[in-house]
Amino acid sequence: MASTLHIGLRPLPTLVLVASLVLLPVVLTAVDQPFYIVLASRVLIYALIASSLNLLIGYGGMVSLGHACFVGAGAYTTAVLVHAGIGSAWLAWPAAALAGAVLAAMIGAVSLRTRGVYFIMITLAFAQMAYYVVVSLRALGGDDGLVLPRRTGYGFGLDPHADMTFYYAVLGVVVLLMAGLRRLLNAPLGRALQAIRDNDVRMEAIGFPVFRIQLAGFVIAGATAGLGGGLLADLNQQVSPSLLHWTQSGTLMVMVILGGAGRFLGGVLGAAVLLLAQELFSDVTTHTALGIGLVLLAVVLFAPAGLAGLWRQVAR
Amino acid sequence: MPLTLLAEQALNGLQLGLMLFLLAAGLTLVFGIMDMINLAHGTLYMIGAYLAATVAEASGSFVAAIAAAVVGTAVIGMALELTVLRPLYRRSHLHQVLATFALILIANELVRIIWGAQPIALNMPAALSGPVELAPGLRYPAYRLVVIGVGLAAALLLYVVVVHTRVGMWLRAGASDREMASAMGVNTAWLFTAAFGAGAALCAVAGALLGPLLAVQVGMGENILILAFVVIVIGGIGSVRGALVGALLVGILDTVGRTALPALFRALASPEVASEAGPALASMLIYVLMAGVLCFRPRGLFPARG
Questions:
Q1: What string of DSSP letters covers chain A?
Q2: Mean pLDDT of the region B202-227
Q3: Residues of A in contact with B84 (CB under 8 A)
Q4: Range of the domain at A140
Q5: Which partner for A125 in A113, B226, B257, B287 could form a disulfide, CB atoms 3.0-4.6 Å apart?
Q6: Interface contact B94-A117, CB threshold 8 A
């Protein structure tokens, strides 16, 4: 191991994971379960969004309860662009990321003055403001949201409405961004972010611009969540204010902690487990939330480091 | 805007503010003393309303309904504290948020199983259903006046208990320095359970009183929980006085804003702008207030800890 700070992924398991994700739709088509390709796309998108929140909570120590507003900003940006006749994913997705980044810069500039519980609450307050803006603007469809008449296109004669094509586009984006995220965490900025999480006063004292570093982390997470929102808008071909509702922010937080905050694949694991569990429970009973709630409670009480930590707990 | 309408809205705001205070007082004490984020506080409010509706339906007496809701919710609250929440005190806020979020999911689903997904009815006592003429031209619902009265009485009682009794002194000591209070011989374990029970009882009072005015339904707790959190963050976490000031500010600003802002926009701009921007800005008003307070006073208006 190069350094205890180094966030590594062992090459072989990583390769196996990515290869199985690449092969997944082929297998699903072969066993005639194409419905699950859409579910897999959804899991991948939420894995990306949860990972961006993990960057804040797990690595930056910034417990934000307003992350859904960046997702919403990205989703609505994509939807509005499609309605305005701009149908290229090459434009719409970066625009979604940009929308998330701009909103995060504004919210972060104010919120990062506060600490602890007050930070949780002020991010929630801003997200609620964004929610009410979206609900009330008739141009954004109000309570009903907007329907995307078609998904954004990729060119090269690819059809974004083919589930498999869309899945691979999402997979490409997610793998690329996760690689970027890992690179960031091992770069000086990422190291400084983690050091601030552990002791912000000391970092300030030895001359690091704490506020600017945290703001940079906040903006990067916002941009990533915005991009995730753009992908979600394409997946559902529909956006609605419920994307920005505070329970969405809560659910994203649940994904991160369930998977393991501050563990690189924590967000991915949490998103996968939560969405698959919802799918599983909904086949058995209409009272899905009861099962999810009990599982969550058990995880918090008995596996405080999340599922990624439980793995280590058992292995030890 | 006519003066009577403004007076009516101010009374409505006072009523909402006092009910918010009942919720926020329990929340801020739990938060201040035990350093515990309890998202499930709104759930206790929901349970109180459902218990009240059930007892009112069975017995026909509104007073019996409130009494049963208070006792039942306090017992449920203390049972929750003893079993699930106690192991969480020493954990990070993150774990507390997650665990109590799980409690919300579980409680909502259990309520749905027991009472069904449809809102249930909780009727106000027939004797109080008419209006009262407060001033010439100002008629105000009698029931809302009673709600204001009960809210004021509860706030006064809480003030006396917190400021003038030994238990109140322990509570304040716990909120300002938990470990020192414990070292000076305060039985904090007992205090926590009692404080939690009292907070749950206040939730039940608010739930039962607001039940006839708002809908008794699954999810009612979450909406008001957010408002209660806004209140205690504005007031300063752990401070009962801060909770009172914050609750009245939020209650009056929210209620008056919903009437005044659209009227203001109608006067300044076109009716279309008023009908679109007015309600949105009114909903945002309290969050703007909270962001503004935190910007200039990052620890709230009345910080409990020095």
A1: ---TT-----HHHHHHHHHHHHHHHHHHHHTT-THHHHHHHHHHHHHHHHHHHHIIIIIT----S-THHHHHHHHHHHHHHHHTT--BHHHHHHHHHHHHHHHHHHHHHHHTTS-HHHHHHHHHHHHHHHHHHHHH-GGGTGGG-EE-SSPPB-STT--TTSHHHHHHHHHHHHHHHHHHHHHHHHSHHHHHHHHHHH-HHHHHHTT--HHHHHHHHHHHHHHHHHHHHHHHHHHHTEE-GGGGSHHHHHHHHHHHHHH-TTSTTHHHHHHHHHHHHHHHHHHH-S-HHHHHHHHHHHHHHH-TTHHHHHHHHHH-
A2: 87
A3: 297, 301
A4: 14-244
A5: B287
A6: no
A257–B108: do the CB atoms touch at under 8 Å? Answer: no
Q: What is the ipTM of this complex?
A: 0.76
Distance CA B131, CA B191 (A): 42
Decide if A4 is inside a domain. no
- Asked if B84 and A247 come within 8 Å (Cβ–Cβ), the reply is no
Over residues A255-263, mean pLDDT: 85
Shortest CA gap A59–chain B (Å): 14
pLDDT at B78: 93
Separation in Å, CA of A224 to nearest CA in chain B: 22
- At B136 the pLDDT is 77
Contact A133 B284 (CB under 8 A): yes
- Measured CA to CA, the distance from residue A103 to residue A97 in angstroms comes to 10
Q: Is the pLDDT of residue A95 over 90?
A: yes
Q: Judge whether A198 is closer than 8 Å to chain B, CB to CB.
A: no
Query: Does residue B264 belong to any structural domain of this protein?
Result: no
* CA angle in degrees (0–180, nearest 5) for A47-B287-A80: 50
Domain count, chain A: 1
Using a CB-CB cut-off of 8 Å, the residues of chain B touching A120 are: 37, 93, 97
Output b/e per residue, A181-198; b: 16+ Cβ within 10 A. Answer: bbebbbeeebbbbbbbbe
- In the block, residue with structure tokens 């509702």: A245
Q: Is residue A5, in this structure, part of any structural domain at all?
A: no
Distance from CA of A58 to the nearest CA of B (A): 10
Structural domain including B33 reads 3-217
Q: Smallest CA–CA separation between A97 and chain B, in Å?
A: 25
Check: pTM over 0.95? Answer yes or no.
no
Quick one: which H or E segment has residue B69?
helix B62-80
Looking up tokens 């749905």 gives B112
pLDDT at residue B9 tops 90: no
Give SS3 for B117.
coil
Instruction: Kindly state whether residue A134 falls inside one of the protein's structural domains.
Output: yes
Number of domains in chain B: 1
DSSP B269: S
The answer to whether position B225 is within a domain reads no
Q: For residue range B76-103, list pLDDT tens digits in order.
A: 999 999 988 888 888 887 788 888 888 9
Q: How many CB pairs under 8 A join A and B?
A: 128
